[in-house]
Structure formats: structure tokens, C-alpha cells
Amino acid sequence: MPLAVACAVALVSGLLVVMARRPVHAVVALLGHSLSIAALFLILAADLVALGQVLIYSGAIVVLFLFVVALLPAGGMEMPTGSGQILGAVVAGGALIAGLGAWLAIGPPLPQAPTVATGGVDQIGRSLFGQLIVPFELTGPLLLVTIIGAVAIWRRQESAP
């Protein structure tokens, strides 16, 4: 039952991220989605990954997004939703669900979960600071460039008459 509730919260908050009309509302929904994913990790007994989800995504990246959105004039413009966008979203969502259902029906069987816990903190640390060190270290400059870009766009719009 807790797994179904966490999945439902993740699904609803994910839809709210996509359907939000204001960027601030989308960021708050993203925070709810990130926390529900952390809850799913806890339910699946992946405590370290859940802690990383809360600290890195909920605590840092979502706050960074909120900071960048706050720099936008009036918290971002409200986007009008046209009927073509709604129709496109319904068609794309239906195609995604149909494709996923077909893959599950005719695809290979899903692998069974291991009965013994594998991969502890030691293995995660070795892979993160071993073979994955370059992507791990590149996330910092990437986030810095996004902030600089948001500030540059904000200042350009602020100086325009």
C-alpha cells in the first residue's frame, strides 16, 4: 500500500510539473516529485540513494531552479494553453502509454529483484569517484552556466523598454 501511494504522489506531482502554468508552481511540484521519489527509494530499502535524492535534488537543484525562476520578471510569464497543445499532449501521452503497454506485453520478461542486497556505500563511492568522476565534477560548472544564463536573460529583459 505505501508503494502505491508513493507512486500515485510521484505521478500526480510529475503531471503538475508539466501542466503548471507558472514556473514557480512547476518548481514546487518538482520538489514534491523529488521527495516522492525519495520515498519510493526508502520503500525499496535504498536508504543511501534516498538520502542523495533529498540532499542533492530536493535540497540543492530544486532550490537552484527556484532561485533562477525568482530572477525572472514577475516569477515568469503565465503561458496560455492552446487547444493544439492539449491535443498534442493527449496524443503523445497516449502513444507513450500504448508503446509501454506493447513493450511490456511482447517484450522480454522483467528481471527479478535480487534477494541479497548488493552494492553498499563502498561500491557506490568507488564508482562515483572512480569511473564517473568526470560527469560528477561537470555538474557544478553546468549549474553555474545555467545561473549565469538566467541572470543574463533577466538583465537583458530588464533593460529593454
Task: Report on this structure.
With 161 residues, the protein is mainly alpha-helical. It has a single domain, classed as Four Helix Bundle (Hemerythrin (Met), subunit A). The protein is 76% helix and 0% strand. It contains six helices and no strands. It has helices spanning 2-19, 23-43, 47-71, 83-106, 121-128, 133-159. Helix 1 runs antiparallel to helix 2 (23-43), helix 2 packs antiparallel against helix 3 (47-71) and helix 3 runs parallel beside helix 6 (133-159). The protein is globular, with a radius of gyration of 20 Å. The protein starts with a helix and ends with a helix. The mean pLDDT is 78.
| CATH level 3 topology | Four Helix Bundle (Hemerythrin (Met), subunit A)
Strand content: under 5%
Task: Indicate the structural class.
Answer: mainly alpha
Number of helices: 6
How many structural units, i.e. domains? 1
- Span between termini: 56 Å
Looking at how many chains there are and whether they match, the oligomeric state comes to: single chain
Question: Could you name the CATH homologous superfamily?
Answer: NADH-ubiquinone/plastoquinone oxidoreductase chain 6, subunit NuoJ
Mean of all residue-level pLDDT scores: 78
Determine the fraction of residues in helical runs and give it as a percent range.
Answer: over 70%
CATH architecture: Up-down Bundle
